[in-house]
Amino acid sequence: MNDIVIGDVCVAGVRSLLRYGGPRDAPEAIVFVHGNPGSSEDWLDILEHARELGRVVAPDMPGYGKADRPAGFDYTVGGYANHLAGILEQLGVRRAHLVLHDFGGPWGLQWAATHPAQVASVTLINIGVMPGYTWHKYARIWRLPVIGELFQLTATRRLFKLLLNADNPRPFPDAFLDRMYRDSDWGLKRAVLRLYRATSDLGAMAERMGAALEPLRLPALVLWGDGDKYVPVRFAVKQKDYFDAEVHVLHGCGHWPMVDEPEKTRSLVLPFLRMQLARGEA
Fold it and tell me: What is the Cα 78 distance to its own chain's centre?
């Protein structure tokens, strides 16, 4: 198998950094979509193992990581779903096993709802269809004009690390926080403000996505840290209403289980993906 390689993919003039591995021309792929704040680097540990199962792709979405941050991009759930669709089309991915985290959930599930013949399974990490969800404390700040900009501009490295660690059951590795802070230039901050201000009611959006996805009864693996302060763990079991879901609540984990417990995360995700890929071959 190939090692994880870094390349680029461009959709409508917007470039995304792409990490990929495994059989490069396979029409079936495991597609990793990060959230906010995040990048394809969030998946590095599991990518190294998942590439042994088949083709893997993990893009930096516009505004994040090393992707472009154009002022004119459509920083909405629909805009990101369209960008993901363009990436998969260019890569020739016709059957996708989605691995989604945080805002990667709405982006990926919106793509799935509009491409039902191409989605084969979903792995949902601290995200899913969440009817009735209301925004967490930082999202409420980002949605406020002027105040959101001031909050973003005054976020020093020390404050950034302090706030994220305060909301997690255990301290994050310094390398993880340093990398996220390095990526947090004004282009990323502008993307965050536009995305959250364009998404007034994620709960209502989730209900519409759920109505489109529920008839598919997609195989799903749901992992949820019980210490998540942004997306409550009560939504984990709710995924059984929409998917043929296997649900695991990870005790002592927060919003990033793949960082808090990488080995545990791998031990659940890889067998699920192996089984789903085998079904495609049958």
Answer: 15
**pLDDT tens digits, one per residue of 183-241:** 999 999 999 999 999 999 998 998 899 999 999 999 999 999 999 999 999 999 999 99
Does the pLDDT value for residue 1 go beyond 50?
no
Residue type, 187: G
- Structure token digits, residue 227: 């210490």
Strand partners, 20: 5, 57
Of 45, 28, 233, 30, whose CA–CA distance to 128 is shortest?
A: 233
What is the Cα–Cα distance from 232 to 230, expressed in whole angstroms? 6
Amino acid in the structure at residue 66? K
Give the pTM.
0.96
**pLDDT tier, 155 (very low <50, low <70, confident <90, very high otherwise):** confident
Tens digit of pLDDT for each residue in 10-44?
A: 999 999 999 999 999 999 999 999 999 999 999 99
Measured distance CA(49)–CA(11) in Å, rounded = 28
pLDDT of residue 279: 86
Give the residues across from 224 on adjacent strands: 249
Rounded Cα–Cα distance for residues 184 and 96 (Å)? 29
Distance CA 78, CA 277 (A): 28
Q: Which residues, at least 6 apart from 144, have a Cβ–Cβ distance to it below 8 Å?
A: none
| 273/28 Cα distance (integer angstroms) | 12
Tell me how far apart the alpha carbons of residues 57 and 126 are, in angstroms, rounded to a whole number: 20
Report whether 93 contacts 57 (CB < 8 A).
Answer: yes
Burial class (CB in 10 A: 0-12, 13-18, 19+), 221: buried
Residue tagged 């472009």 (tokens) = 68
CA dihedral 265, 266, 267, 272 (to 10 degrees): 100
